What does this fold into?
Amino acid sequence: MASAPSGGSSGGKPRGSVREVKQVQLDGSVVLKIIKHCQEEGSGSEWVTGCLVGVVVDETLEISNCFPFPKDSTDNPREEIEYQKNVLKKLRTVNVDYHEVGWYQSTYLGSHVSREFLEAHVGYQRAIQESVVLIYDPLQTSRGALSLKAYRLTPQILTMMGASDPFTPESVQQARVVHSDVLVELPVTLRSSRLTSVLLQELPKSTTLPSNALLGLSSTELLQKNVQLLMENVESLQLETYRLLGYEKNISKQAQQKQQFLQRRREENERREKTGEPPLPMTDEAIEQESSLKPVVPPQRLEALLIGEQVDLRCQQISEIAGAAFAKLYLAEGLQPN
Amino acid sequence: MVSYPLQRLATPLMVLRIWHAHRYSSCSDVTMHSLLIHEYYARLDPNALFLTLDTSLKENSLQIRAHVKSKMGLPGKSEGVVFSPVPCEIVSYEPERVGVSFLKEAVEKPAPIRHDLQQVCHMAESLDRLLQQALEYVQKVLAGKVEGNPTAGRELMEAVSCMPQMDETKFESILNSTMQDHLMVVYLFNLVKTQLVLGEKLCKITS
It folds into this structure.
């Protein structure tokens, strides 16, 4: 998993005043490198990650290079940071862009929104304000539709992550944060330099023929997988909701028990007054000690927010797929001789 | 002479890939300097390749060539080393081809990544163009203006016979059932999403 960027990213940050980044521009080599890395290393549901290097120009984040993270050093985050620092240093000596601006990750049918993803990206976005995370979906790409999306965290989520006791139901309600407030998608454009264009012209026809896989009519497998993943997400969401409901029930039950206890105490105290004994304390600590009523721990609502965002993303994906499928079906109908 | 330090970096990535022992130079001449650098790589892997491409585009092309080192000269007297070219072929796999085809459209100016539906429209348009071309060619041949090419004719026959011949009703039923599947899935997903949004709005109201 990607760790937070190495402190200071070996030099100054790539901007003067803070500007709002509205779109992301990728160099051709970045796209091909990411594809290659995922092809060679990613096997099925294992995720591959890497770092993005680039520069901020006006409102566009131009990503000019990227390099992959080695996979096995997840147990030692120090090593990862060292590796990152070294690579950036070497890039600087070779006189190319060396400011890190984000990271990329491969995903399996869009199920990347998880706690580790959030935490990894929070580190990046705190250190470099304009950083983005690029999500690449290898399955969709082998189907014929290049699936590269750029996301950032909203400022509300960032402030909430920084709070000391984040994501209790009360704080979430107060901040009025909804699941769609977690991630923001940025439009991505591709750019190829002059030399890349020359190379593209020179490539043999077999490598540059646009793949017709996208026109394939069979998307039932894809639908199946998506529905399965949605079911899992809904189950986890249900779990979270039960937890929340249980918490609220516990709170009300505890309040009742406390009331009962206090009532008994009052009666006891009145009785003691009559007999002249010292009254028993009615403070909170006494209540805790004597009635073994522990304060109820509020559940974390972060998971619920993330799952909500995940479901949202999946819905978007499915509507895209379905739209394309309808278009293809009508095409096929048009080609039939009748 | 750009990649020397970057190649060193490949060592931490050894878990990542097979050691690709080659280096590339941005001018197409082989010089003494390149021999020294090649010696370094030859130590790591005796089959080291030397890849050159011409970025100054002297002959209007990139001139991608690969060389291997081989000994030459008379044994015992004047021995030397020559870099002999090796046939070089570029291959790619499916996802890469998709990426490359997207990049091709970004040649003039930065192009946005198209989503599924737009991509299908785009491909439909290009398919239309190809069909038009094929049709024109066939008509010209029939009218006798252009001489028919038997291979082209055979390919066209194959393409046309690829269309699955099906009963009209059967095709309709398959079409309808697929569309219904998709519609159902879209409906389900939208239902879940609406419920989620509703739930959160309710929470906001009750707070």
Q: What stands out?
A: The helical segments of chain B are 4-9, 32-44, 94-104, 116-143, 150-161, 168-206.
